Amino acid sequence: MNTIAVEIVTPERVVYRGDARIVVARGAEGDLGILPNHIPMVTPLKIAPVLVKKHEGADDKIAVSGGMMEVRKDKITILAESAELAEDIDVNRAAAAKERAERRMADSGKDDIDFNRAQLALQRAMTRLNVAGK
């Protein structure tokens, strides 16, 4: 089976390491599907889940908050600001963060810096809940 090595790293640790048939990530210009032998590239990532498809029915979903993805012919490296596996996500904490962000967005003006920060916090919380399956 043709696979590509995948490594997701944060400033603190290696969050994920494995092989994939395809990796789906959200880049600055939209969703990307990376297969083995992909042309080399570097792209910024949005706050979104990264899907690592290994083989039929065996997928890993990782909550990634921004960063960069480097693609080489034989390896994908994601340098993320933060990243969490589904089993590492505290669902109650993520739900509380989502509610806080929604309240801050409702209370702040549209051109306020706090609104943008709250919007990013909401995206992170929604991504974490998505990956955790909630």
Defining key terms:
28% helix; 2 helices; globular
Fold and architecture overview:
The chain is of the alpha+beta class. The chain is built from two helices and seven strands. It has helices at residues 91-107, 113-132, and strands at 4-9, 14-20, 22-27, 30-34, 41-55, 58-71, 75-85.
The gist of it:
Helices cover 28% and strands 48% of the residues.
- What structural category characterises the helix and strand content? alpha+beta
What is Rg?
16 Å
N-to-C series of helices and strands: EEEEEEEHH
Number of strands: 7
| Strand residue content | over 45%
Strand order of the largest sheet: 2-1-7-6-5-3-4
Largest sheet: 7 strands, mixed
Provide a count of the helices. Answer: 2
Helix percentage: 25-40%
- Span of the ends, CA to CA: 32 Å
Q: Detail the poorly predicted runs.
A: none
Overall residue-averaged pLDDT value: 89
Overall geometry: globular
